[in-house]
Amino acid sequence: MSLISNLFVLFVAAAVVLYYLTPGKYRWICLLIFSCLYYLSGNARYLFFLLFSITVTYLSALRIDHMQQKGCEQKKIKRMVVLGLIGNLGMLGAVKYTNFFIDNLNLLFHADMKGLEVLLPLGISFYTFQSSGYLLDVYWKRIRAQKNPFRYALFVSFFPQLLQGPIGNYKRLAEQLYEGHAFSWEHISRGLRRIILGYCKKMIIADWAGVFVDAIWGNPDRYGGIVFFGLLFYGIQLYGDFSGAMDVVIGIGNLFGISMDENFRRPYLARSMSEFWERWHITLGEWMKNYVFYPISLSKWMTRFSRWSKKTFGRKTGRVVPIALADLIVFFFVGIWHGASWKYVVYGLMNGGIIAFSELMAGRYRSWKKALHISGKERWYQAFAILRTFILVNLRWFFDRSDSLGQGLYMVKQAFTHFAPAQLLGIPAGTGGTAFVPQALLIIAAGCVIMVAAGCVQEWGGERLCGKLSRLPVPVTAGMYLLLLVCIGLFGSTAAPRGFIYAQF
Questions:
Q1: Beta strand extents in 128-171 (DSSP E only)
Q2: Which of 47, 443, 452, 482 is 20 to 30 A removed from 390 (C-alpha atoms)?
């Protein structure tokens, strides 16, 4: 059931109505039922994998909590954690990466092993990470294990975030799910605003940009001269699509009085790659930091490596090298989380490599800025840093958008063959064909200007824009919502409907 379908809108409306008609202490059961129905609507076979993840992490966490209360030996508790993580993440690895390994073994040894016909369940990358994070939080005694299996099942399967995130943290989310929130027009208004804005980002900006991206990547021999335009359009498409989906998801949560974690915070205004990842897919970055980066950084082998690094490279550089290595490892996992392909390995290592290089060069950068009398606070320097980061971010899309590593490298080659901006006018734009291209480009440009202006107001304007909107009279607010819906009808993409990109993860 796509988030942009009429059926989904009716499904959410029914869930909201029944939620508030249900007595307060039973409302979490209503959410659980609708979450199960939503997941079943995709494919009944998907439910097995979701239930497996829930069961393994629920029982493991319960056992770990019991062992900790009894004061069992730490080695036994750690063994239980490892078994739980192997069961949960092992399922993810089996369904998502088995064929990738088989293909590479065939290539390496000239074998002819057949791949498995593995069903890739919707949202598996998100709910396995969320449940694994819960298991580790219980182990580290940040939370107590949830004893009610149905309450825990709701935390993992809450339907708005099930397929695309954000990756929820038990401590911040769970109690909100179990609390029977009272009906509030403020919650409804806030939720509708986020949902409609999300649909505008997706159906107007992202889908129109996607028309040009698909054409360029679909026929690079013909449109190779405008590959850099394709990168720019893909950056627009991906942000509009993914952040739009998060607006819809978070908005649906608001309808129930639930505040989920933000997943985007104006990422294209970042001044460095590390800051970009603090603003883009925030919950994935936090998950990697809390459950991969810190455990690696504090591990015994990393401590030994740190001592060796300081002896080898000197105290100053040696202190940074282990951090740079940990970043490379983290972004390797970020890459393969996105998919089982060498293009994602390269994509992840590009991110990690840029961040690691920046950390190693930080001292040199400070020396150069000092020699040039640059404090780093100058407006021109801030603008330069934003533009530099924006260019680096967009260059990574060569591999993220391509179907394979080979295609990504071919697109890089095509980008430097010839430059022919007029080719844009030859790309059919929806049902209007090539004649509608100028209007489509104008719609994308206008949408981007509005998004950038709103982002700048939120970034530097002090009071948040949504705070001002919430104080407008109800008729004015309703009129704005209606106008946005009309805009979707008037300016939305007329190309073939497309689902959200991250719903495939």
A1: none
A2: 443
